[in-house]
Amino acid sequence: MMGRPSLVGACLAALALSGCSEDASGEVQGSRGNTPILQAPANGAAAGPGGKAGPSPRAETMPRGDLPEGEGFDFYVLALSWSPSWCQDNDPQARTAQCDSSGRGFVVHGLWPQNERGYPQFCDSAEPKRVPEALGRTLFDIMPPALGLIGHQWRKHGSCSGLDQKAYFETLRAARERVHLPDSLGPQATSRPSSAAALEEALIRANPGMTQAGIAVDCDKSRLEEVRICMTKDLAFRDCAEVDRKGCRAPALTMPAPR
């Protein structure tokens, strides 16, 4: 995916799904190497003041026509990670909220500004590097419950969108809501696609306007890691040749079941 090799994706997934936090500078801090551990409550609720569990606030999504249009790039890539694959390797004991028994399937890895060739990253922005906790927690229903990942996504990708933090994350949510996941890709599915082509076809059938040339399936050998979907700045589906060329070429695909 245009300079986003699987190893980088795995590292970012590890950052996200470990449940990490940031210090005042916006840098990730903690005790697992450079990746911290800050567990969200096992029931998926956000921790309130004093560590008490409380519901995660949910941001209201603006109508697509009212979303501000980003600038400085050509289109977006919405990256949806398959949580069970990461949990299988990194948290088999289900100690983190990401890998508990709540049965998470696809979660948003990020919304990435992209160019026809290459992509911008870590851009100068008038916005702070740190994402406020109150804003970050509004995303816990669609992203891994990890403020460190959310902050990293803003600094690396959101800062290149031409949007402020609030508008960028509203656009990220709207992009996720733009994609309909069919039952065969849901966490409760009893029968799942057995190849990258079958997964793409399931998405295309469920999302009018989506094409095979606008999707890239990322796999580790034959195991699904992530699906990347290309969108215009106003979140219409579009083709993206360079992204599509980096897709999974394994003849078969496995999708570990959620807990």
What does this molecule look like?
- Helix 1 crosses helix 4.
- The longest helix has 14 residues, at 165-178.
- The chain has helices at 6-17, 83-90, 133-137, 147-156, 165-178, 196-206, 241-245, and strands at residues 21-22, 28-29, 46-47, 53-54, 75-82, 106-114, 215-220, 223-231.
- The chain contains seven helices and eight strands, in the order H-E-E-E-E-E-H-E-H-H-H-H-E-E-H.
- The two termini are 29 Å apart.
- It has 259 residues and is of the alpha+beta class.
- It has one domain (6-22, 31-37, 63-245): Alpha-Beta Complex (Ribonuclease Rh, Chain A).
- It has a four-stranded antiparallel β-sheet with strand order 6-5-8-7, sandwiched between helices. A two-stranded antiparallel ribbon has the order 1-2. A two-stranded antiparallel sheet has the order 3-4.
- GO terms for molecular function: ribonuclease T2 activity; RNA binding.
- Pfam families: Ribonuclease_T2 (PF00445).
- Residues 23-66 are annotated as: Disordered.
- Belongs to the RNase T2 family.
Structural features:
alpha+beta, RNase_T2_His_AS_1, 8 strands, 259 residues, disordered N terminus, RNase_T2-like, Ribonuclease Rh, Chain A, four-stranded antiparallel sheet
**Average pLDDT level:** 81
Distance between the termini: 29 Å
Count structural domains.
1
CATH class value: Alpha Beta
Shape: globular
CATH level-3 fold name: Ribonuclease Rh, Chain A
SSE sequence, one letter per element: HEEEEEHEHHHHEEH
CATH architecture: Alpha-Beta Complex
Estimated radius of gyration: 17 Å
Pfam families: Ribonuclease_T2
Region (Disordered): 23-66
GO molecular function: ribonuclease T2 activity; RNA binding
Family: Belongs to the RNase T2 family.
